[in-house]
Amino acid sequence: MEIFTDLNEITTPFPQAHITIGNFDGVHLGHQKLFDQVVARARQNGGTSVAVTFDPHPLKVLSPQGIRLISTTPQKIELIGRAGIDVLVIIPFTREMAMTTADEFVDKVLLGRLGMRDLVVGYDYAMGKGRQGDTAFLQRQGEEKGFSVMVMPAHYEQGMLVSSSRIRELVAAGKMGDVRRLLGRWYQIRGDVQWGRRRGGSQLGFPTANLYLSEEDLCPKRGVYVTQVIYDGRQYGGVSNIGYNPTFGDTSLVAETHIFDFNADIYGRPLKINLLRHLRSEIAFSGIDALSRQIRRDIEVARKVLAKEQQKRLIAYHRETEA
């Protein structure tokens, strides 16, 4: 996938550009439907599949406290790349960009700069100043200016509308099974392992890898989770506590993860953590012994959950190979 982060880098319109445009926060199953459609239409017509998005998210500029994002920009790039898109255009979003009218954006960017011949958007998409460029506007523009427009309907999974806002609500509530159904994958946090207070191994007997979290980002419900840990291309089981560690009176928001069957120095190294199930809320224990006993119980439950998940994956794999 070719990536452009500045419109001025694009000196020649793309051949037969088939475009989808959106914020794509989380790259959920609804977004994936858009990408599938754009890729299929581009291939059918010998064109170029193009995804257009913005960085930062427009609401981070227009209302900084108004949104907490499901995915970082690197995650979004990674996930869109998996969809088979030929070109990703990431437009820097500024207050000046926010003043661009829908007409200007269609003429100068989509048609003039990118060479759009076909557009695929979601049912609720709108662009331009004041969000005046809704789907009806785009369809009229297509008729006037010679490009086709396909509006994708809302997508549902098991009766739930797939939307970024709904996923944010589910993450905040710790409903990771539902989050997975709408994302099409486990919700993931990632970062570089930081030095902690080193109590996990020395005092509790359960060493942890610590990722510090920002209060300004989307944060799952506080508490203990069954997790899958991805390090250096390998996957391990684990349990993670997301919170402030009230037993010790800490004040920093951190994800402390005990990784099963693992012994390596990973300070400063990148770690990815998939959240499978919220086991319990974070509580203050009477002391180290009580906390240690509870961690043992958490680990026992987590191993059972992970074993069931592995069994499900094996069954699904055999069904696919036999089909």
Strands, count: 14
Q: Identify the strand order in the major beta sheet.
A: 1-4-3-2-5-6
Q: Tally the helices: what do you get?
A: 10
Q: Unreliable stretches, pLDDT < 50, 5 or more residues?
A: none
**Percent of sequence in beta strands:** 25-35%
Overview of the molecule:
- The structure is a single chain.
- The protein is of the alpha/beta class and 323 residues long.
- 36% of the residues lie in helices and 26% in strands.
- It has 10 helices and 14 strands.
- The strands form 3 sheets. Strands 1-4-3-2-5-6 form a 6-stranded parallel β-sheet, sandwiched between helices.
- β11 and β12 form a beta hairpin.
- It starts with a strand and ends with a helix.
- The mean pLDDT is 92.
Name the features.
6-stranded antiparallel beta sheet, 10 helices, 323 residues, alpha/beta, 26% strand, elongated, 6-stranded parallel beta sheet
Write the layout of secondary structure elements.
Blueprint: E1 2-4, E2 17-21, H1 29-44, E3 48-55, H2 58-62, H3 73-82, E4 87-92, H4 95-98, H5 102-113, E5 116-122, H6 135-145, E6 148-152, E7 156-157, E8 160-161, H7 164-172, H8 176-183, E9 187-192, H9 199-204, E10 209-212, E11 223-231, E12 234-243, E13 254-259, E14 270-280, H10 288-322
Parallel strand pairs: 1-4, 2-3, 2-5, 3-4, 5-6
Antiparallel strand pairs: 7-8, 9-14, 10-13, 11-12, 11-14, 12-13
